[in-house]
Specification:
The protein has one domain. Helix content is 66%, strand content 6%. It has 7 helices and 2 strands, in the order H-H-H-E-H-H-H-H-E. A two-stranded antiparallel ribbon has the order 1-2. The longest helix is centred in the N-terminal third of the chain and has 36 residues. The two termini are 21 Å apart.
Length: 174
């Protein structure tokens, strides 16, 4: 059931806009962070080869900056990342209020959990490229969570995903 004044077509458009905004954010973040990460590694001759070393590199190069970006943008007065802004979307509390930093942090933690699980699986990387059983479990868990997130988004026609439901937020067209 859609909220009052929210038609089926508007729900479908919202769903597509959210996907487009997410993909745009990921492409932009990777486009900025990857060259910086590779440049820093080359400049300081950092060559992560162990699972833990690769995980640290991913954490510092991609995870931490992405977390800051998502949290600060969601808690900003506009309530939007660059992708959301371009697609005219805004994150708010259930009653339209601006997100606090802790609430934006919780939303980001749940939203990026599958992504971070895959990064964590790298800790169990074996130089001979054999899969460690824990690595397989973590990757499967990440994929199951991703499918759950998608199912909830489809069920709510894009208005809420798992992280929105748990934290009490919504994304709306502005």
């Amino acid at each position: 059931m859609n909220p009052p004044g929210h038609t089926e077509t508007a729900s479908q458009v919202l769903f597509v806009r959210r996907i487009a905004a997410y993909l745009m954010n990921m492409v932009c973040l990777f486009g900025v962070l990857a060259p910086v990460a590779f440049g820093v590694q080359r400049l300081f001759q950092i060559k992560p080869t162990s699972g833990v070393g690769i995980w640290h590199a991913a954490l510092l190069s991609f995870s931490v900056p992405t977390w800051f970006y998502c949290v600060l943008c969601d808690a900003a007065p506009a309530g939007a990342t660059v992708g959301k802004s371009l697609w005219q979307l805004q994150v708010t509390g259930e009653y339209g209020q601006r997100l606090t930093l802790p609430r934006a942090g919780g939303r980001t933690a749940i939203k990026l959990l599958p992504w971070e699980l895959v990064h964590l699986a790298v800790v169990f990387y074996a130089p001979d490229r054999t899969a460690h059983p824990v690595q397989l479990v973590v990757v499967v868990l990440s994929n199951v969570l991703s499918m759950l997130y998608l199912a909830v988004a489809l069920r709510t026609k894009g208005q809420q995903r798992v992280h929105d439901r748990i934290i009490g937020t919504q994304v709306q067209h502005v």
